[in-house]
Specification:
Distance between the termini: 58 Å
Structural class: alpha+beta
Radius of gyration: 28 Å
Strand content: 5-15%
Low-confidence stretches: 1-13, 231-238, 283-289
Mean pLDDT: 79
Strand order of the largest sheet: 2-4-5-7-6
Helix content: 40-55%
CATH class of one domain: Alpha Beta
CATH topology of one domain: Heat Shock Protein 90
Length: about 290
């Protein structure tokens, strides 16, 4: 027997010729239903995994918050033990000032901590509101008093026309102010700061640049984690939560934020990236079809 004669006979798959039209229609419908069901299960599994990641992140960040960041203000509050009839009025006044400072810092930690945990626990559902990021930027500049201090050279580059994104203006102002105040705070000597807004290819980009202390390039992602301090020497004030809060808000609105620096002493840049409101609406419409 030849090689061709010993070869296995191919298995035939029923095709259109072997199925009448009603059977074919039922088969296609059942196949589509099965595929849709598997896709739904896959989406639900992905959503559950994402939720677990958020919960794990919340747990880790909260434990860090409790075990480390609350220690300093609580220590300050312990100065109440120094107040008594045996101390002078000047010593009592000094102790009271330490307590007030500790209370203010504790309150700041708690308020920002709760706000941060709230934002990162939210589902990333695009809001119905839109915000003009150009108007947001101008308002944030007006509300950032540090930009008008002596020795600060600030430059604003923004288009005249609106740059609409999905989001709420009040929270976008908060994010932009965090970046501007960060630039002022970490530019102790050469306070040269620029905020530039661009709208291109369905995206809106806002970049805040400074020529200040800079960041170790290996920390440009880590600094968005809560309580991460890239420059310990200049962390006498603050909660270590501002950049983490900014990222939480930006990501809740479907945006991205990144930091770049060539190294310590070489300045930094922080960029917000959002899909333009028109592009975001088009994407959601296509997904719904």
């Amino acid at each position: 027997m030849s090689q061709s004669e010993t070869a296995a006979t191919p298995v035939s798959v029923p095709g259109h010729d072997e199925m009448d039209d009603p059977q074919l229609i039922l088969y296609a419908r059942d196949l589509k239903r099965a595929v849709d069901e598997e896709r739904k299960k896959s989406r639900e599994l992905a959503a559950a995994n994402a939720r677990l990641e958020v919960l794990d992140r919340l747990k880790s960040d909260f434990l860090t918050f409790i075990s480390h960041e609350l220690r300093t203000p609580l220590n300050a509050l312990s100065a109440v033990d120094l107040i008594g009839p045996e101390v002078t009025a000047a010593e009592q006044a000094e102790s009271l000032e330490i307590i007030r400072h500790g209370y203010a810092r504790l309150q700041d930690f708690i308020e920002k901590g709760l706000e941060y945990f709230w934002w990162i626990s939210q589902d990333q559902t695009p809001p119905s509101e839109t915000a003009d990021l150009a108007a947001v930027l101008r308002r944030a500049v007006q509300e950032t008093s540090g930009l008008t201090e002596p020795g600060v050279a600030f430059r604003l580059v923004a288009p005249v026309e609106p740059c609409e994104i999905q989001g709420e203006a009040v929270y976008m102002v908060k994010v932009v102010k965090i970046l501007l105040e960060n630039a002022v705070k970490f530019s102790p000597q050469k306070k040269v700061i620029q905020a530039e807004l661009l709208s291109t290819a369905g995206k809106v980009l806002l970049t805040v640049k400074d020529q200040g202390l800079g960041i170790d390039p290996s920390l440009t992602e880590e600094i968005f984690r809560p309580f991460t301090v890239a420059d310990v020497k200049h962390h006498a004030r603050g909660s270590g939560l501002n950049l983490a809060l900014a990222r939480g808000i930006v990501e809740a609105y479907g945006g991205k934020v990144r930091a770049e620096s060539k190294g310590p002493g070489l300045g930094s840049s922080f960029t917000l990236e959002f899909p333009a409101a028109s592009a975001a609406n088009t994407g959601r419409s296509a997904a719904g079809t």
